[in-house]
Amino acid sequence: MSRSRTIDVPGSQGVAPEFLVTPETLDAISPSGDRGGVIIGSDPQGEAQAASILRSMPTRMVTVGGLYLARQLALRAMATGAWVIVATGRPAAWKMLERAAGETPDGKPVPLVQIRRLAPFDLPRSSEDTPLLVIHDGGAVPQELFPPRAPWQTTMYVLPYLHPQVSSGTAANTADLVLLQRLPLNQAQLAQRIWSLRNHQVQPLTQLQDDQLIALGNMTWTMIRLVTNQKEKEILGPIRRGD
């Protein structure tokens, strides 16, 4: 990839800062972000596409599709130094994040990553030095267990597919950034209603390849091709649409 462009997320306060992580973590995860944000992939011209998903205001984002995309974003947030907390009903599906983060000298998981059950709990305080990514992996109709309330806190809702009830929930309707993988026609039409898409934007959602997605933001409709580095391949396996 050549130059990098940052996707316009509403209210973004310029470029994202750099964060420091341990050498052990950098050995496990190659840094995938720059000062413009977390790199998601490349556009059709081969330019890197980044989004400031960790920023100085409460942020909501939604991924619709397989677990691969959500786990890759989590790894890349970790590579910028963010704390990652996953609330999920399927903890085994996220254990590779703990393994990627490594262990402390006494053999315990590095606290950079926490995998918790899908129930309310107190979140650590987020700050510019310790930004927080909360991943809510709670099915197609998630409850608002961890709404982002503080600066430098981003809550990412992982939706396996679009459910009609999502259209009345705040997680999807108020998201600052939405990443959509391939959808069947009925779900693409539902996406049109939820995010006020134009008619010509519906069909492309049904034709995306496994390594493609559409990013929706503030006046943004961007097709992105996922790019995986070698260390991520070792952790996540090949790029795929499903779980």
The CATH architecture term is 3-Layer(aba) Sandwich
**CATH class wording:** Alpha Beta
Strand content: 25-35%
Mean pLDDT: 83
Largest sheet features: 12 strands, mixed
Classified in CATH, the superfamily is P-loop containing nucleotide triphosphate hydrolases
Runs in which pLDDT lies below 50 for 5 or more consecutive residues are 11-36
Q: What count of structural domains?
A: 1
By CATH, the topology is Rossmann fold
N-C termini distance: 26 Å
Task: Please count the beta strands (DSSP E, at least 2 residues each).
Answer: 12
The helix-strand sequence is: EHEEEEHEHEEEHEHHEEH
The percent of residues in helical segments reads: 10-25%
* Structural class estimated from helices and strands: alpha/beta
Give the overall form. Answer: globular
Individual helix count? 7
Question: What is the CA-based Rg, rounded?
Answer: 17 Å
Question: In a nutshell, what does this entry contain?
Answer:
This is LSDAT prokaryote domain-containing protein. The chain is an alpha/beta fold.
